[in-house]
Sequence to fold (392 residues):
Amino acid sequence: MQPNNKKIFRYLIPVFLILCYIAYSSVAVFGQHESHEATADSLTTTTHSEEAHGAEAHDANAHGAEVHEEGKVDAGKLIMEHIADAHDWHIATVGHSHISIPLPVIISDDHGLKIFSSSRFEHGHATYEGYKLEEGKIVAVNADGSINEHASFLDLSITKNVASMLISVIFLCWIMLSVAGHYTRNKGKAPKGMANLIETLIIFIRDEVAKPSIGPKYAKFLPYLLTIFFFIFINNLFGLIPFFPGGANVTGNIAVTLVLAIFTFVITSFNGNKSYWGHIFMPPGVPKALWILLIPIEIIGMLNKPIVLMIRLFANITAGHIIILGFFSLIFIFGAMNQTLGLGVSVLSVAFTTFMNFLELLVAFLQAYVFTLLSALYFGSAVEEHHHEEHH
Fold:
């Protein structure tokens, strides 16, 4: 790695930390905190009396798995609850016991700051400090237990997605500091192992994304481009791990992708030169009589760029999780019809799920690459000079 490229490690980590903090705030305030805990009760078929069945359905609903009829699983609801955010981190289900890690609940209201464990809510069955979980979302309640719709409070709780981002921060800091230490200790030597992999990715983003898309001014934007690339890539990979500390759908949370898109939009806008803004508000080579039509179109196009970034990443990552969970759900859907049929389908489902997991490894890289490439293209359009048009 060239000496000037070593500065990347100095900027990459602080920018990454700032990005995660703002993403955390966005998830906490704007994200939909829906419980995704799936229980064994939703994946089994039983025969009970009318009263026992009603009690079982109520218990399953409390844990996020609704059974409409005996032996039938609501696969759609089950899938959506798995990809949603939560206030605890489900580890495993042993019999009727649910092993999970409760996460901190942080609420700011008129009485000050309240911090306590999400286990106080008992998966939505209990009220604590005037609050409770209602369909995975924290709501204020009155003394009689009814929801207080007029209560004003700020929910800054550390949810599963936020906790996963914090873990990815620690993981990335460890990687980057280790790689930086390797170059300090082995000056002039070829990198090995992790250092070689990270250097390859950094050079790839620099030479194949930043330079061609932005031009001579690429170095100014390289720390940010590397930050969003590694942020998206690592969180995509963590989301594919089916057990702790993975399984969180961070980049499939639209609040997170919104923050990333806003970062790109703000950087593009602040670095836009005279030519960039001139194309938007004074389209060159067009009669002024048509400006009243073209200027709104240009403004819409400018605002459409971050929307495309936000939805593209959110939709692709979420779709991948839904497909994998869909294949997995087929086992229980067909198993509810016939046990032998369910056993046969399980072989195909596991095979397709395994294939999709390997495909998602490629998607994890591609989505990080595409988001970084589009951001670089937007930066390039903002700093590009159009001398021929200025001459005319």
